[in-house]
Design a protein that fits this description.
The chain is α/β, with parallel strands linked by helices. The strands form two sheets. A six-stranded parallel β-sheet has the order 2-1-3-4-5-11, sandwiched between helices. A five-stranded parallel β-sheet has the order 7-6-8-9-10, covered by helices on one side. Helix 1 crosses helix 3, helix 8 packs parallel to helix 10 and helix 11 packs across helix 12. It is elongated, with a radius of gyration of 24 Å. Keywords: DNA-binding, Transcription, Transcription regulation.
């Protein structure tokens, strides 16, 4: 096992400097600190029990791990960041945003270096390295999500399986038997956004059980052809009676614009329900009924659980808490029109 002297040798500093970086008892330059932390990561060094005692005082910092990437929904993820920061501040903690591509290395660096007392994982994928490697962190972690591998961290999220079931039943209650699923951005599917995959699988399965026929949009990109979507999937005989939306407000806006251009009335001719979205925080131009994300409630629960683990030494590994989804009626979901009714006009 590597020791503090090995770290010092690789970093080109003294053993006492490594100790000061770990304990925070003296001010060390950012350049030297980075060299020491890089050496710790390379060697896989973990401080011994004596070192742990030296650095036993808390930093009063919670790290938020959210790798920054192109095309992310800035409104949605900003909401999670701000709500997590607000709840942390109420609990007496500052926050440290970890946005590097090497997310696991980022977390190990700040937990091994006692720069954070716990970690919140944001923007969680179905197969997420951060949750899979949580057993290697020296501090507790909580994921806002439900990744496949979560034995060593806690998971708190909306129950997206229940959300899919709720959406299917709402449609069935209103007599909808042919619907279109407007998918989320294809990049999110490709990278394995856990909540989107869970909802879609549950929704399709429950629709099949209820005898609801579901057609899916093609790949959704930022330059989505909304008029083509309406022309190919909405207009004509045997038209669907509802759209179930997974996309962000910018996509849904242009689809609703195209429906208006085709003289399709919502909800008289066609119902719209949005699921697993955050329309209230985005610039949606129309009132749309929604089963929304809830950053405020989730972040409050996450910080409560994490602070309990930090301050009371509660073992939260493997803990799963899934919140029941809530339907918000804004008037866009109504009874299905008569069977076989042809709606709108050609675009």
């Amino acid at each position: 096992m590597p020791g503090i002297k090995d770290v010092a040798q690789l970093a080109g500093v003294s053993a006492s400097t490594v100790s000061y970086v770990l304990t925070g008892k003296r001010s060390i330059s950012a350049k030297t600190t980075n060299k020491v932390m890089k050496a710790i990561d390379q060697l896989g060094y973990t401080p011994d029990a004596r070192g742990q005692r030296l650095r036993g005082s808390r930093s009063q910092v919670i790290a938020l791990s959210e790798p920054i990437r192109e095309g992310m929904n800035q409104v949605q993820y900003s909401a999670y960041f701000m709500q997590a920061a607000l709840q942390a501040r109420k609990a007496g903690y500052d926050v440290l945003l970890l946005g590097a591509e090497d997310a696991v290395g980022d977390i190990r660096r700040v937990t091994n270096g006692n720069q954070a007392d716990g970690v919140v994982l944001l923007d969680v994928m179905a197969d997420d390295n951060r949750s899979a490697e949580a057993g290697s962190y020296t501090k507790p972690s909580v994921a806002i999500g439900y990744p496949h591998s979560h034995e060593s961290c806690a998971c708190i999220d909306i129950d997206f399986v229940a959300l899919g079931k709720m959406a299917a039943r709402k449609l069935d209650d209103f007599g909808h038997k042919r619907v279109v699923l407007l998918r989320g951005l294809e990049d999110n599917y490709a990278r394995g956004a856990g909540y989107m995959l869970l909802f879609r699988a549950s929704f399709l399965s429950n629709c099949e059980k209820l005898g609801i026929e579901v057609r899916e949009s093609g790949k959704v990109t930022p330059d989505f052809d909304a008029e083509g979507f309406v022309r190919n999937l909405i207009l004509g005989p045997k038209a669907p009676t509802a759209i179930v939306n997974q996309s962000q407000a910018g996509i849904l806006n242009v689809v609703l614009d195209a429906l208006g251009k085709a003289r399709i009335r919502v909800p008289e001719d066609l119902s719209v329900i949005s699921c697993g979205t955050f329309l209230q925080g985005e610039m949606i131009r129309y009132p749309v009924s929604e089963v929304p994300l809830d950053p405020g409630t989730l972040c409050r629960k996450v910080i409560t659980v994490l602070v309990d683990a930090i301050e009371n030494k509660r073992d939260i590994r493997g803990l799963v808490e899934l919140t029941e989804p809530t339907y918000v009626d804004r008037g866009s979901l109504g009874p299905a029109p008569g069977d076989g009714k042809e709606i709108g006009q050609t675009l």
